[in-house]
Amino acid sequence: MRTTARRGLVIATTLTLLLGLTACGADDAPGSGEPVPGVTDTEIVVGTHMPLTGPASAGYSKIAPATKAYFDYVNANGGVHGRKITYKIMDDGYNPATTQQVVRQLVLQDKVFAVINGLGTPTHTGVLDFLHSNRVPDLFVASGSRSWDQPDKYPNTFGFNPDYTVEGKILATHVKSTMPGSKVCFLGQDDDFGRDALVGVEKVLGAGGVTAKQTYVTSNTNVAPQIGAFKEAGCEVVILATVPGFTALSVGTAARLGYRPQWVVSNVGSDHPTLARQLGDAAGLLEGMVGLNYLPMQTDTENPWIQLFNKINTEHNSGAEFDGNSVYGMAVGYLFVQALQAAGKDLTRQSLIEAVRKGGYQGPGVAPLRFSATDHSGYGGGRLTRVTEGKQSFFGPTYETDENDGPVQEYTVAPVTPPANGVPTA
């Protein structure tokens, strides 16, 4: 009797689990008749978490409005398969605890179809498991952490930025080839941002190739001890893995200490207009700063993507100041619309994920997008930039590499031009 009872319990439990799995996956089955969260015949509701306020808001607060402006432009041109995109932007203040609150609201209350371009390494890390367990597409995370490239563990999460190790390798290769023998210091954010970037730098310069290494936390705006240590060590080059506010703090603090190294800065913290606004009259301190970018430069008025994005910025973003953050936000919007087009009219969360995994996307980027079933990391390289006479411009070729020990090599594929009406088709 006990054996029969146990068998009955096992069968009942198995049926319950199967029914539960079926219910969880119902919205992913085309033609199932079950509603897809955030999707109707006329609308697609997506959301994001962004630092509209707080220590990372400088510059970054402009990204989501630019993405929304691109979506509004697409909506004005008929939408995607007859649906308009609604973009819910939640301010998390670059605070991981707040990120968890606002993302839960987006998923559980607002029932968004997907989370797009959630910004920040420390912030987004805290919602990875939640988004995974709720089977929410987690697309084009605004960070270069290698955490987003875990297809087996997080099959619905995809990055956008070049990962910080790739970027560190490219920046360090420039330092090694153009400033050989220089003493190099490194300042990085005290999380995967800084750690992954340092891995890339040391893959090229070697563990002993960095004379002094320091970290910072966004809750402490005093970087004088770190910069003072670099000055004392006699470092001629300082590589920064910093958000814009801390790039400006580092440059300004160094000037106050009478220290003027060559600055080599991660893409996420090197947008010149953002830094110049923060430094004000001291913006000249940015002269000669080297950075990296993988999207067209906002100052390149001959570039057809910049012409398109500038037009959209004027018409749909209240004429907000146009900078690298604006370009970034619209590039994300363009890629998401490409993925929606590829996912087809019978839109489900699973069809969207499968569309991204198929890869093959091209857009405004100068470097390759690497999406595939086994690679969720986003862009795979970039081109160096330099500030000269107050203007940030590209120099040299575009480079690509991997996060392991592969070479840093030139990428020679020319960028594509935008479609005539600025809206991608299937």
How would you describe the overall organization of this protein?
The protein has 426 residues and is an alpha/beta fold. It has two domains: 43-162 and 298-380, Response regulator (Rossmann fold, 3-Layer(aba) Sandwich), CATH 3.40.50.2300; 164-293, 3-Layer(aba) Sandwich (Rossmann fold). Helices cover 40% and strands 16% of the residues. It contains 14 helices and 13 strands. It has helices spanning 2-24, 57-60, 63-76, 96-109, 121-125, 128-133, 164-178, 192-205, 224-233, 244-256, 272-279, 304-316, 324-343, 349-358; strands at 43-50, 84-91, 114-116, 138-141, 157-159, 184-189, 212-216, 237-241, 262-265, 290-293, 381-388, 391-400, 409-410. The strands form three sheets. It has a five-stranded parallel β-sheet with strand order 2-1-3-4-5, with helices on both faces. A four-stranded parallel β-sheet has the order 7-6-8-9, sandwiched between helices. A hairpin with a 2-residue loop joins β11 (381-388) and β12. It is globular. It starts with a helix and ends in a 16-residue tail after the last strand. The relative contact order is 0.13. Residues 1-26 have low confidence and may be disordered.
